[in-house]
């Protein structure tokens, strides 16, 4: 890594990481052959993690989130490497005897990590420039572009590493990527939407679910055609007499100036983080108060700090979906909001999907989107449960939580539950009367048996 080597045309230069992202073959070869590229790639993964989280997660309260992309990259890269090795073995093509599996994996991981700077695009703070819906659509579009770019780029990197055609490596990479994406999206879908009745999703959740469903469907229906194409490319590669040279073991040096890429990006992101991290740490503090049951203190902190002191995109607990923790109780939050006479923005922040969450906290997991389904089955719940649900919904009605559509829906829910409560009380009284009658008959029967005994 000597500057004097900078005149060597095979030296890794400042522009090579950028040209690598654009798919320039000469730069890709220099990057893969440089022994320092693995460490450089790791540094770029760290900056990519910062770009994802600097305006979304409090680094002080959740430092483990910065390690998420690194751990995920190792898992996904290993899966892709195994898939490519299987495909290579199936081709039966003879390879350079000097190459080793460990060396192949190191080069493979280097190429994967060097695609990390594409995630810098996620650092655009669109949330402070546009409303929630525009920001979501922008981020989903950006996610699609980066995902496609990264798959195509990495397929080209693998093609250069192993001396193959990109048409073959693209299908080899797509097969495991589609499987991973499908099951990840399926898990996200199952956590977001109830399988029975269904919850009433917010507008952003509806857009997100639609996007996830579209991508999952594309992975599901596209898997077989891509798998057939991958098998076909394996067959063609095994019969082909022409094959490009593999990347080989030749090492190239790196100019020190290349380290400006992770250094400058890290400094830039750290400066940007100073504008967002105080808000994120403050919101994390309020989240902790709410989960621990210090609801009055949490509400008072929000009231004293003001709306501008918190992130634009922030959904305090309890929230849906959140399997890990359903605290605090919506009814207790509503009590605190009524007691302190808070500003409207606090109610709006703390009561997103409050009706759905409140009923879920009482054991109703089927949602309220289908009122007919709700009416048919809520009547079978016990009187105390229905009464607690009604009490909470009444508090939400007093606070006028949600938009007009939500308030109208809540009114229908309350009407249905009042009828169900009356029916449940009648059923309970009938059961109690029947039980008392059975006990009276048993008592009379026992008395009759006693009187019939000899000597009685």
TrEMBL record:
Organism per entry: Rhodopirellula islandica
Region spans: Disordered: 430-456
Transmembrane segments: 31-50, 70-93, 105-124, 136-158, 170-195, 215-236, 257-276
Designated name of the protein: Transmembrane protein
Protein keywords: Membrane, Transmembrane, Transmembrane helix
């Amino acid at each position: 890594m000597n500057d004097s080597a900078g005149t060597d045309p095979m030296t890794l230069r400042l522009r090579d990481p950028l040209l690598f992202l654009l798919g320039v073959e000469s730069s890709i070869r220099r990057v893969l052959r440089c022994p320092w590229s693995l460490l450089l790639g790791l540094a770029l993964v760290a900056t990519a993690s910062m770009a994802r989280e600097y305006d979304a997660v409090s680094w002080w309260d959740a430092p483990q989130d910065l390690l998420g992309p690194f751990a995920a990259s190792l898992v996904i890269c290993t899966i892709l490497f195994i898939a490519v090795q299987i495909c290579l073995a199936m081709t039966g093509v003879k390879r350079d005897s000097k190459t080793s599996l460990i060396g192949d994996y190191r080069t493979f991981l280097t190429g994967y990590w060097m695609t990390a700077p594409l995630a810098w695009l996620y650092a655009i703070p669109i949330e402070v420039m546009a409303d929630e819906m525009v920001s979501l659509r922008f981020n989903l579009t950006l996610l699609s572009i980066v995902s496609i770019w990264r798959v195509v780029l990495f397929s080209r990197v693998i093609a250069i590493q192993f001396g193959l055609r990109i048409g073959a490596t693209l299908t080899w990479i797509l097969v495991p990527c589609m499987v991973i994406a499908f099951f990840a999206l399926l898990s996200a879908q199952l956590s977001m939407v109830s399988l029975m009745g269904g919850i009433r999703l917010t507008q952003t959740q509806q857009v997100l679910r639609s996007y996830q469903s579209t991508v999952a469907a594309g992975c599901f229906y596209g898997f077989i055609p891509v798998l057939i194409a991958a098998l076909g490319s394996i067959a063609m590669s095994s019969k082909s007499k022409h094959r490009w040279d593999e990347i080989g073991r030749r090492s190239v040096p790196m100019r020190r100036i290349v380290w400006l890429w992770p250094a400058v990006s890290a400094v830039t992101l750290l400066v940007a983080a100073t504008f967002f991290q105080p808000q994120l740490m403050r919101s994390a503090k309020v989240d902790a108060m709410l989960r621990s049951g210090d609801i009055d203190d949490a509400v008072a902190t929000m009231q004293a700090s003001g709306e501008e002191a918190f992130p634009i995109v922030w959904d305090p607990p309890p929230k849906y979906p959140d399997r890990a923790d359903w605290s605090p109780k919506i009814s207790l939050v509503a009590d605190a909001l009524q007691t302190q006479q808070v500003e409207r923005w606090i109610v709006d922040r703390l009561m997103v999907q409050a009706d759905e969450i409140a009923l879920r906290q009482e054991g109703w997991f089927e949602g309220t989107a289908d009122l007919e389904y709700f009416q048919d089955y809520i009547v079978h719940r016990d009187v105390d449960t229905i009464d607690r649900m009604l009490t909470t919904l009444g508090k939400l009605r007093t606070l006028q939580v949600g938009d007009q559509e939500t308030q109208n829906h809540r009114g229908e829910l309350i009407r249905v539950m009042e009828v169900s409560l009356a029916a449940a009380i009648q059923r309970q009284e009938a059961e109690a009367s029947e039980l008392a009658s059975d006990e009276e008959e048993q008592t009379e029967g026992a008395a009759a048996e006693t009187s019939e005994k000899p000597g009685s």
